[in-house]
């Protein structure tokens, strides 16, 4: 009888972890492994197994898992504990509608506080996105671009919620972006948005962002519906 390899075996730990860094190291290590697919959807995150892997007590593991759950990367399932969350939820349209509200407000608050350096950094990310062909990296760069525009918003709780939504989208895009064909349209939107932000045109910037996110929601919804229809048809 063959046994499936344990996904946690893909995580390599180099040397002991200082106690004061344990929670952040565990959180970042697991986050990266979830985002790049080494820890697939449904993988159980057992505290004692993780504590042994990282060579720490269960306390920093528990704290790290709570942070990942708050970022929607883990779900708590009855009788199973924490597991890696699905790539995207069935309520993706509702999630995107909430993102539009949150990101619009974050952008509105941030624009008056953005510096020329922030604008240059966002422009450099667009340039890199246009050259990038690795879909894993495209998802990361997309998140960084948006957070560069929102990052000066003075409401930290709002920013945390916004980043959680972008984390979820990044993870989904890593595995599905090529099939959806979002590349060129996305960059045109980004350049238009950045131009308006640079001119401090707040309301026009927010409207452009909302349109950009609406297009993303429509493409993802259409893509998920097409997959569902294919699954319903089944093998012929």
UniProtKB/TrEMBL annotation:
The keyword DNA-binding applies. Signal peptide: none annotated. The keyword DNA-binding applies. One of its GO terms (molecular function) is DNA binding. Coiled coil: none annotated. Keywords: DNA-binding, Transcription, Transcription regulation. It comes from the Bacteria. Pfam families: FCD (PF07729), GntR (PF00392). Residues 20-87 form the HTH gntR-type domain. PANTHER family: TRANSCRIPTIONAL REGULATOR, GNTR FAMILY, TRANSCRIPTIONAL REGULATORY PROTEIN. This is DNA-binding transcriptional regulator, GntR family. It comes from Pseudomonas brenneri.
């Amino acid at each position: 009888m063959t046994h499936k390899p344990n996904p946690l075996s893909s995580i390599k730990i180099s040397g002991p972890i200082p106690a004061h860094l344990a929670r952040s190291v565990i959180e970042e290590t697991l986050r990266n492994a979830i985002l790049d697919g080494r820890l697939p959807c449904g993988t159980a995150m057992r505290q004692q197994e993780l504590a042994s892997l990282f060579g720490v007590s269960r306390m920093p593991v528990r704290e790290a898992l709570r942070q990942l759950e708050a970022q929607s990367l883990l779900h708590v399932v009855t009788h199973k504990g924490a597991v890696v969350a699905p790539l995207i939820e069935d309520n993706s349209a509702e999630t995107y509608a909430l993102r539009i509200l949150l990101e619009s407000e974050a952008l509105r608050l941030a624009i008056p506080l953005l510096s020329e350096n922030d604008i240059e950094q966002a422009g450099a990310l667009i340039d890199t996105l246009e050259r990038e062909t690795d879909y894993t990296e495209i998802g990361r760069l997309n998140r960084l671009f948006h957070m560069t525009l929102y990052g000066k918003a003075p409401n930290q709780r709002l920013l945390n919620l916004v980043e959680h939504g972008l984390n979820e989208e990044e993870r989904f895009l890593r595995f599905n972006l090529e099939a959806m064909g979002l590349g060129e349209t996305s960059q045109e939107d980004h350049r238009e948005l950045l131009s308006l932000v640079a001119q401090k045109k707040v309301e026009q910037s927010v409207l452009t962002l909302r349109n950009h996110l609406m297009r993303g929601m429509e493409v993802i919804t259409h893509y998920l519906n097409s997959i569902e229809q294919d699954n319903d048809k089944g093998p012929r």
